[in-house]
Structures are given as structure tokens and as C-alpha cells.
Amino acid sequence: MHFLYSIGLFALAGIIVPLIIHLWNVKQGKTIKIGSIALLGESSSASSKSFKINDWLLFVLRCLLLLLLAFLLAQPYLKKIVSGNTKNGWILVEKNNFPRVFKTHRKTIDSLLRKGYEIHDFNVGFKPLSLKDTTLNEAKQVSTLSYTALFSAANQFIPPAAKVYFFADHRLYHFSNELPAVNYKLSWVPLKQSDTLSNWIATYAGKKYEAKSNPSNTSYQALNSSDEEPIRVAIHEDPGITDSKYLTAALKAIESFTKRKVIINAAAEKASIGFWLSDNPVSADFKSSITSDGTLFQYEKGKLVASASFINLEGLLIKLSKRIESNHQAEKIWTDGFGNAILTKDKTNNLNIFHFYSRFNPQWNELVWDGLFVKALMPIVIQDKNSNGFGFEDHPADQRVLSQNGLIEQNKTEIAAKTIKNEPLGNLFWIAAFLIFAGERILSFRKKTNHVKN
Q1: Predicted pLDDT at 390
Q2: pLDDT surpassing 80 at residue 222
Q3: pTM above the 0.85 mark?
Q4: What would be the CATH architecture of the domain defined by 200-394?
């Protein structure tokens, strides 16, 4: 037996109360009839004291009652091992793919159904499916959630340590950069893809790219080679700060990828975007060096907060160690794991201003070490009003696949950690305390009645 709040056991010291009551037993004196009082002296006290327990049963009941109350304050529980052999397992499959899956894996599914497995739609709500759904020809319902989110949500529906067979492909397109943690035993049955090679045309900021994808990688190649205006960037940082070296490397990567020239700190012409890497307020001269309707990216100053969290870049997570507390009510672009602003955006005096509540520094976060740094800067450096962001990798035709072994090994670790369940014992102790209290009251009442009769 274990206790949630062991400090509650200090209440056991209350056992001393019934002990004192029963040991300090004061007896009333008795009147003795005698024939002569000639030889009697001065009258003595009409009472006597005895340090002796006369009613052991009542004493034990009262001690047990205090003992149970102390245990209730400490909230006792037992650690119970949850068996992985649940009565019914689950079969997870997307309803749109169910007819094709049943056709190719009929023997496996029939065998699981005979063992008591249930079929559920791998989508929001995880609604039950039946074999009748294999003949339906309904309009496709595409889930807006990633497999990562759905696997995590399934923890609330699937019994802990239950066996689950999941029929789907392994394409990386379905996942964010963090593998899900689940409390059930997942067996992934991969679906064969009819095509493992695909290509498509992506457009960003007026430039077209040809994407070619296979199970191992996806590559992009710029198609239109027409001359474009260079991107002029102004960077300011305080002495002793070296954050600009990471920013410059990312800008060069953008230049290499887009085939669009990036000019940094050109004194002759105004910049289309300015990076203010300083704790000091942005100077008026620096703002005037940015074109009208241009972009200003500035470090924010304020209360420093140590934060063991991550930066959320549209579902992709980057380790975060420190941030600046934000009270700004602008639109949130990046957040941490608790929803606090890391990057916000507003428009002031014909400038699109990005407020950054961290730093381009490995001591603050791991953004500058991650390949996502370039992707995250792309929509800031190259403004495209017709695009919500730069995410070629999110295309449904992306053929890259996730390693199955990596996912299953992680899940086995999570299952092992979650097969122990705490079973509260509070109700049993309350019942025992009530019965003992009732017995103590009955016994005490009888003792008082007998004393009156005498």
C-alpha cells in the first residue's frame, strides 16, 4: 500500500487522546454503612484515581477510528499492473481506404474480428465501422489532423495496453517532426503504394518550382529563370553579439535555393527587410532605411523567462531554453509549448513588423541549428501575399516515408511505462471508519446505560 500524501500520517499522533482518556480513569467514592462512627477520623476525599485501562474493546475501537482517519488524509492507493491482454483489440483504418484495405488484407481482418477486435475509423471521434462500410461509395472525407495528433487522441479512446492493428502507408506527409507517445500496443500494417514516384509544380512568391519525390527524399528545382529584383537586407546588431552569422548563413541558403540574389547591408539603396538584433529600441535611422510597406524583424526586450519548452512552427517543434515575456496583443506566428508568443506580427506606419521574443542564439533555442530555420525565415524574407507559408514538404504527393521501427520501439517504451495503474483505496477506508464509529457509539451508549442502573 502506498500513500499519495504521506504527511497525513502525522495525524496518527491523535491516538494519544483515547490513551489519556482511558488511563486517566477517575472513580467516584462509595458510601459504606457501619455500626459506629466513634473510631472514625476526619473524612477523606470521596474519589480515587487508577492508571489502568478497564475497557479494552472501546479503547481499541477508538484507536482504530483515529488510525483510519489518518490514512484517509494520506490518501492510500495500491499500484495495480494493467494486463495487456484486454478482451477486445482495435483495428484502425481510414474509412475512405477501408474497401481497398479489406480487399487486400481480408484474411487478417477476418481473423482479428473472430478474436473480438473492433473496427474504427482512423479519424476524429474514431467511429466504429462494420463490413458494410466496405461496399459504400461515399465522398472522401479528408482529415485535417496529422497522424501524430490522431495517435495521441486515440489514447483517450483505446484501453491502455490494448493491441491495435493500423492499416495505412508510412508516408512522412502524415506526421509532424515529433513521433507520438501512445499507451497501446501498435502493430502497423503498411499499405502498398501504387506509385512511389511523383512530381508536381509548386509556386511561391511568383516563382515556379518542379518537385520530384520518392520514398527517400523530395527535391525542388526552379523553373523560371527570368531576372528578378534582388532582395536587399539590412542587419544591425550590438557589439559583442554574433547572432548575425546564423542569420547571414540562412539568407545565403535562401539565395541558393530561390536563385534570387540577396544583398546584405547595401548602403546605396533602401532595404526591403531589416533585422534589428539588439535589446535597444529600433532607431529612427534604421526604420527609415527600410522601404515603405517593407518588413522589420526586431528583438524584443523585457522580462527574461527560463523556459524548458519548444518553439511550435506549425506543428514542428524546436527546443526552447529562454524567452522574453510578451504582453503584446499582436497576431501570434510562433508560440511555445504553453501558447506564449515567440513571434508576433503587426503593421505600424507602413511597416510589417515581426516581434521576436527569443534570439538567434543556441543558448536561447536550437532554431539556428535546425534545417527548419531556413524554411521559417522564407515567408519573412520573401513576402507572398497569396501564400500562407512556405511548406513544399506538406504536399499530399510527397512520397517520403517514416521508419516503422523507430515508431514501434518508442511505443513499446511508452506502453511499458503506462501498464502500472494507481488504484485508490479511499472508499474502503471510509466504509471501515463508518462501521467502527457505529460500533464505538453503540458500545459507549451501553456502558453509560449500565452505569446509570447501578
Answers
A1: 45
A2: no
A3: no
A4: 3-Layer(aba) Sandwich (3.40)
